[in-house]
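Anyone up for a design puzzle?
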């Protein structure tokens, strides 16, 4: 009762990274609330899946292992969460803002008439006062995300209904093992009690997963370009610089929308979140939705001809100049020093 739950997305026998990141955050939230952290793993032939999640500080693991639960289809997983939550009555439920989470979250929240905030960039515990009624609600989940096109940061609360549900994209939260030998309870449920046979009406005949063309999320150095790069040819300079630095190339939404780089390289609230050791922002103004995707970088270098660009306020180093002037010089000197 009143615990923090994390729905763990499965890729075969492996728990997705986004779910492990949410377990790390869920453990911290549970500690603040003085409650337990519980994980839900639903799939087929998962083996000892609990060994993957317990080290993140999970107190109870709910395992649903049956034919038809992998690959993911909407109805069985919705039934599992809805029926389990009716029994357990959690106060918080977190899941990844993936294709699966975006499908499953709204179904579950609708069935339970609870709230759901998508694409959160921060999750905190705090109090809320309803000014109209004078009621003070204690220990609510602050669901924080950019809103109105990224022009403001909205803090959303759900005082009345439970569970408080939020989805978070991969890479936003940090994944940290709490204790390799953490002891928790493992409950293996009878799936038939939660999922009616009619839920298996959709069967996946074939499943093809396209491998990523780059390692933007895992690269220690990211060179990112914005609309200020001017063209697709302008981005060729970034690829040349990235080659010298053994880095990956990313782009702002404005650059992607303009066709300067591919959509899968977009960094920000509606793209990828990165945590590199070094982030070089080239011709990027620094709108809030972009900053949400790279603000945790170790060192940020901004190359911009506008000294008042918003990204300069969070940059560790600012190079004031045009990208056409600065980047070729960087390439030249990196080439010279790498020999």
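Challenge accepted. My sequence:
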């Amino acid at each position: 009762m009143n615990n923090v739950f994390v729905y763990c997305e499965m890729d075969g026998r492996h728990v997705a990274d986004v779910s492990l990141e949410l377990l790390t955050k869920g453990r911290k939230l549970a500690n603040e609330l003085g409650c337990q952290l519980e994980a839900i793993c639903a799939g087929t032939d998962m083996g000892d899946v609990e060994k993957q999640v317990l080290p993140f500080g999970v107190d109870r693991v709910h395992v649903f292992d049956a034919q038809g639960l992998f690959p993911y289809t909407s109805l069985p997983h919705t039934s599992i969460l809805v029926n389990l939550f009716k029994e357990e009555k959690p106060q918080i439920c977190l899941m990844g803002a993936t294709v699966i989470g975006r499908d499953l979250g709204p179904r579950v929240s609708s069935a339970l008439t609870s709230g759901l905030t998508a694409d959160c960039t921060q999750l905190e515990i705090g109090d809320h006062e309803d000014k109209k009624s004078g009621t003070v609600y204690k220990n609510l989940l602050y669901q924080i995300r950019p809103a109105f096109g990224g022009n403001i940061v909205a803090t959303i609360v759900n005082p009345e209904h439970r569970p408080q549900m939020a989805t978070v994209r991969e890479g936003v939260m940090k994944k940290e093992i709490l204790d390799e030998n953490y002891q928790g309870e493992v409950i293996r449920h009878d799936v038939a009690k939660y999922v009616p046979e009619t839920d298996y009406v959709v069967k996946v005949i074939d499943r093809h997963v396209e491998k990523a063309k780059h390692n933007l999320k895992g690269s220690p150095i990211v060179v990112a370009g914005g609309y200020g790069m001017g063209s697709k040819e302008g981005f060729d300079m970034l690829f040349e610089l990235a080659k010298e630095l053994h880095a990956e190339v990313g782009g702002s939404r404005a650059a992607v929308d303009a066709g300067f780089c591919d959509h899968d390289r977009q960094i920000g609230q509606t793209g990828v979140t990165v945590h590199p050791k070094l982030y070089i922002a080239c011709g990027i103004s620094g709108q809030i939705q972009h900053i949400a995707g790279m603000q945790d970088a170790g060192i940020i270098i901004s190359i911009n001809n506008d000294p008042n660009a918003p990204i300069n306020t969070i940059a560790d180093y600012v190079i004031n100049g045009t990208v056409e002037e600065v980047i070729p010089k960087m390439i030249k000197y990196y080439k010279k020093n790498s020999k």
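A detail worth pointing out: Residues 49 and 288 are 38 Å apart (CA to CA).
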